[in-house]
Amino acid sequence: MTDTVLRLAGITKRFGSLVANDAISLELSRGEILALLGENGAGKSTLVSILFGHYVADEGSIEAFGRPLPSGDPAAALAAGVGMVHQHSTLADNLSVLDNVMLGTEPLWRPVSRRREGRARLLDTARRFGLAVDPDARVARLSVGERQRVEILKALYRDARVLILDEPTAVLTPQESEALFATLRGMVAEGLSVIFISHKLDEVLRVSDRIAVLRAGRLVATMAARDTTKSALAEVMVGRAIPPPVTKPHSRGDAVCVIDRVTMHGERASARLEGASLSLHAGEIAAIAGVSGNGQAALVELLCGLRAADEGRVTLGGRAMPADPAAWIAAGTARIPEDRRDVGTIGDLPVWENAIAEHYRKPFASAGIVRRGAARSFARRLVDRYDVRGGGIDTPARALSGGNMQKLILGRALSGGAARAADFLPTLIVASQPTWGLDAGAVAWVHQQLLDACARGAALLLISEDLDEILALADRIAVIHAGRLTPARPARSWTLAELGLAMAGEGARDAA
Amino acid sequence: MRLEARGAVSPAMAVVAPLAAVAFTLVVAALFVAWAGAPVGRTYALIFEGGFGSRFAWSETLTRATPLVLTGLAAAIAFRARLYNIGAEGQLYAGALAAVAVGGLHGGTGFELPPAVLFPAMLAAAALAGAVLMALPAIAKTRFGVDEVVTTLLLNFIVLLVVSMMLDGPMKDPTAMGWPQSVALQDELQLSKLVERTRVHTGLLIALALAGLAWGVLRLTTFGFEVRAVGANARAARFAGVPVTRTILAVALASGAVAGLAGAIEVAGRTGYVTLDMSPGYGYTGIVIAMLAGLNPLGVVAAAVFVAGVLVGADSMSRAVAVPTYVADLIVAVALLSMLVATVAARYRLRLR
Predict the structure, then answer these.
(1) Which domain does A378 fall in, by range?
(2) Shortest CB distance from A325 goes to which of B6, B221, B240?
(3) Which of B69, B90, B125, B188 could form a disulfide with B115 if both were Cys (CB 3.0 to 4.6 A apart)?
(4) A8 and A142 together in one domain
């Protein structure tokens, strides 16, 4: 069957001077999976946001099932049978699965909720598509994969005939991703259509029928998945060849930082550690793999000096460290937080003040007065050396793009307030999701900076949810699940299947 | 209908937005003046004349502006660190009581100290009283996460009751024929007049000096950086090694101290003693002034003079035409709201659809 269910014609969207979508025309057929491939910032999310009515296109029109779709109206999109599964969960944590699914489907003035019918319909939908859920479970208790299943069910419950998934595998283990792909195939077999957004080449090739590649707001190619290869796709997506990071030979030195049976309590799973042990060596890259929310946040907070261990201890250079960021900075830790917008930078302050924020007392002040001239020329050199673009040193940091923000944070952390690059080498680098959301060029650049510092003798701890990144860089890998760390093993000794199992908690159980 | 962020605030917009806000304010207030049945043009002219139109008008406006600069500063400093001190009113009264306790009790003997020692001691006592009063909510906030808006606001009423108790008890002036007012400050401690035969006093200079000091500290010092960093993003500030709790406590003390000084300076410069109605809400008006000034200490001076002028001008206007003085409150309130909208409009663009 080749009847068109969705037709986008000449969609253009500008944000100020940035053209996020440039005259994009695209069709979706009944029963197909269309992958929307592109780097971060290529315009994928903008395009589906227009499709779903979150944004209004400046030009162009959309037709769904032969009828024009009014712009800027998510309710109309839903009514036309277009459902969306967002990258981040949009479910209400404190409600049950059934409540979440029924939310918004009932008229406000109906005095009684028709829960019994709703439940029957939910169970029927779940059975039809093989998405097992407990309707009465509280969403707060569900895993990320289960929540995603609920989101899909929520769309199907509203009779979605077209399902849009925004980077659905970003939060899943390899095994959970496989299960999702099976579900999607089942759905298209039933005659539904799927738009699948991703920047991961392998999964796009595996799951989709057709691939549309976006680059810098333009639709640069549309091709059948079976007619292309990974390398061809990569070239189309990036538009140029990205050199792989050069790994300089580095030798493992002494243990710099030792985490000894650390337990941290917390309300949420992401804030807990249970008896975690790990030692980080000079000149070595250790990586923590794991599905997000399994205790990475606690580990990062521990090593950034934001939280103390409830049990166990952590030493840096043989000294027990307090929960005080200033002490960790003074001891030579370079810290790259996951949330660059809300933790790494102070958005309303200018770039130059952000550049010295970790060293505003020493060396950039004397007798309580900020040495403005020294601070600003340091910032100017940092912006220069780390290629921070998007305005001068007086621009508020919030105006920087994600990539430039990351360069600023990296520059600040790696230069340690020293005027020349050669004058400072961090003893320990803690990098949490350092390349999340960056384009391929910036990713390669960040990796190169980290590798270079490591080659000079810094110990690097890389915490990432991107297995490809970990496999490309790490000397040793430990997997985190539910606050427990597996022993760190040489990267080569892990198989992908093993990593996946450990991320799902199977390996940890064996080790215990 | 939605708001979209503009890339950067254009210089033209930064000028046009506040002017548009003022124009809008005058239009809105004009509607109410017309409703009251008075000629709009003449009413505005009278307000302007009463506030800024003569030497006498200026002197009254500046007298009124003096405590407003100080309470405006108290709010602006605290709000910069996102510490919402709504308690300047209470801190002002606490400072006034402390000033009289040092400089008026003991039968006016002033502990047998020379004025050169007693005067700074009086100001220090007032600052300390305000600071201590603000320290309690700040500690409760940093230790237990208690919302300082609630605690500082409620402390105002407690302080007023304490003032009432003192004025009828230990600090009561026996010569006041039963009026609830405190004993008077010693004559030597009164602030001298800045201009002959007016009420403007040297407290204005203290207020201006403090505004300049606050501006310099915020802009040039490491403490100023800490305050701005904590206010802009406390999480990121903590990550970068800023001692967030210590900064909030220090800001609280500074804010309370400045509000306490406002009380001492009112007593020493204008009233000479404490009464229950010595402040017609200076503490609350200070918040409005701080917001009008965009939390800039130098802007606070300009905003305080504007608000004082409108208040004084409306007083004299209402004696000439049949418009109640409440029109001043209306103008100040609408000015605040339209200024806030203008700030948003300068940073965001409104999209219909």
Answers:
(1) 347-422
(2) B240
(3) B188
(4) yes
